[in-house]
Amino acid sequence: MYTLPVRATTSSIVASLATPAPSSSSGSGRPRLRLIRNAPVFAAPATVCKRDGGQLRSQTREIERERKGGHPPAGGHKRGGERGQRRGGEEEEDEQLPLPSEKKGGASEGEAVHRYPHLVTPSEPEALQPPPPPSKASSKGMDPTVERLKSGFQKFKTEVYDKKPELFEPLKSGQSPRYMVFACSDSRVCPSVTLGLQPGEAFTVRNIASMVPPYDKIKYAGTGSAIEYAVCALKVQVIVVIGHSCCGGIRALLSLKDGAPDNFTFVEDWVRIGSPAKNKVKKEHASVPFDDQCSILEKEAVNVSLQNLKSYPFVKEGLAGGTLKLVGAHSHFVKGQFVTWEPPQDAIERLTSGFQQFKVNVYDKKPELFGPLKSGQAPKYMVFACSDSRVCPSVTLGLQPGEAFTVRNIAAMVPGYDKTKYTGIGSAIEYAVCALKVEVLVVIGHSCCGGIRALLSLQDGAAYTFHFVEDWVKIGFIAKMKVKKEHASVPFDDQCSILEKEAVNVSLENLKTYPFVKEGLANGTLKLIGAHYDFVSGEFLTWKK
Ligand SMILES: [Zn+2]
Ligand SMILES: [Zn+2]
């Protein structure tokens, strides 16, 4: 039986949580396989897994390591344009930025903030029914939204996945990303697209306004678990926080009025993480127009997130020991610019060269795509995907800029409605459904998911090894119980494969506990799709709820 050690050493954490190495499956070299199946596809039994196969990042690793101890203050180094717009905050390692204490705020300006008086106080979340298994009947529907996902995957499979075994084969046995990236859920700013980050290269969190909240085990298990997993288990070397132009979350933050009632259930509470930045901008740039204040705030909020990162003990330790660096960045999709600060120089070169390639080869060449996106986003999809560096849906499904508002967290979990614990994901769902009016919510599980392994490995009554991870993955507890009961005799790795899909079902059920989702489902403006990406066999499966 698989157990998480009570006091895990670093290596035992890695052994427990790193993704498994399937022993016999192979997705490449089978170009004509049925790509899409509407039945669960189980990964081959896995052997004990080791992270860090080494090969997968040879390119970026060639760049020599950062100089020791270099952790310049924010704003100390910038590249690209907009040099005059911000200055770095003075930072001290120990300082923690408290969450702002004000409870009330309201938004009456800023086009990204709308009023939704019909959003009533939510009723008690429904008791979760054990969700049905993936339906085998979903192929009959010819639903264009599903077809879009499938054809996107098919294109990826034949044009990328099958053609680059040298990239994807090593990734089947584990991930060892160099970067952890925080990016906004905004459909226009996927860092895999804008920075050309390759599968395996960046463990990615996407949330409203790419906010990193301060350490808080109760309120922010979602973000906390991702940071912890990235730093402690995956040993990422660089954490990058990327703000962006025309950010709706930043507009919402700047629009908050003291004492006014909140328009949303979650959004205001989430963006208030950036209140210290807002206060700074209001004070230092009081005379500047609202839109310009937003532009400045987009970068200052990144500084708050960088500061908040230091409130996590494992981050602080990594910074002190020189194994971890922080980078602030801002992507300006109206001007087509990308700026960074807080250098380790080599990481910045990787990011800026990735952006330059995107700029020259994609952005500048497709004004018909990017032109309209400069004035707003109207994504059809909201996608939940794991932070795992191998599963970016922009890559695997070919989702285009503007097409999918995207949340990425550990194991693509969607918790049930909870204003106290889950403002991060609640705000994203609320914003996507109520403000952006997305039509489809897609939850995508994946093969060899470390978060799912952690969930299945949890022992009743055992002490937690992590600060956050166990608490976060327990969102899928019902699915785990189901798998343990119904598939008691199958090996651990096969149970993991089943659980990857059952956990998606739990997330789909949990989505229904959000009143705005329930409403959209009831009146037919919204639908839910479950999906699973198996990067070992090279298959993508969908089902409807
Ligand atoms: Zn944004
Ligand atoms: Zn995962």
UniProtKB/TrEMBL annotation:
Claim: Cytoplasm is one of the keywords in the record? no
Q: Which residues cross the membrane?
A: none
Q: Say which species the protein is native to.
A: Zea mays
Superkingdom of this entry's organism?
Eukaryota
Q: Where is the composition biased (Basic and acidic residues)?
A: 49-69, 79-89, 101-114
Q: Which reaction does it catalyse?
A: hydrogencarbonate + H(+) = CO2 + H2O
- Give the matching PROSITE patterns: PROK_CO2_ANHYDRASE_1, PROK_CO2_ANHYDRASE_2
Q: What is this protein called?
A: carbonic anhydrase
Q: What is its EC number?
A: 4.2.1.1
Its taxonomic path starts at: Eukaryota, Viridiplantae, Streptophyta, Embryophyta, Tracheophyta
Keyword Transferase: yes or no? no
